[in-house]
Amino acid sequence: MGCINKSLRVKDPWDSDAEDVIWCNGIIIGTTENFGYMSGAIKDFFERIYYPCLERTQALPVAVYVKGGLDGQGAKTSIEKIITGLKWRLIQPTLVLKGNFTEDFRDECKTLGMTMTAGLEASIY
Question: What are 43-100's pLDDT values in tens digits?
């Protein structure tokens, strides 16, 4: 998970809290798909930050990537429902990386991060 605010914080979801989210101008959330759902770490993160952030982070730009073993749709859908509830703004469709890991996945995530950074620097988001 990464938070951006003229600097970058890359934190494990277990070590992230609502203050990290409130601090940032944009957030990138990544997860594996586990049993057709987001990872337990990301679920725990959302459970801890949801209510403290609900009124304070509306319209926060967010990007999401899912490493899916099959199709990634369960994790994608569950995360997007929570993001909708928080009233965050997806800057692009959720990136779903399907199947076995390839070097292309790394490139796609790098592009996602650069898109977020460029949009924040240009005040697009």
Answer: 999 999 999 999 999 999 999 999 998 799 999 999 999 999 999 999 999 999 998 8
Among residues 4, 22, 14, which one has the least CA distance to residue 63?
A: 4
Sign of CA dihedral 40, 14, 57, 120: negative
Is the domain defined by 2-101 classed in CATH 3.40.50.2300? no
**Pairing of the two strands 26-34 and 37-38:** antiparallel
Amino acid of residue 8: L
The DSSP string of 1-61 is -EEESSSEEE--GGG--HHHHHH-SEEEEEEEEETTEE-HHHHHHHHHHHHHHHTTSTT-E
Q: How far apart are CA 42 and CA 32, in angstroms?
A: 9
State pLDDT tens for residues 11-32: 999 999 999 999 999 999 999 9
Token code pair at residue 114: 């650069």
* 95-98 vs 8-10, strand pairing mode: unpaired
8 A C-beta contact, residue 27 and residue 8:
no
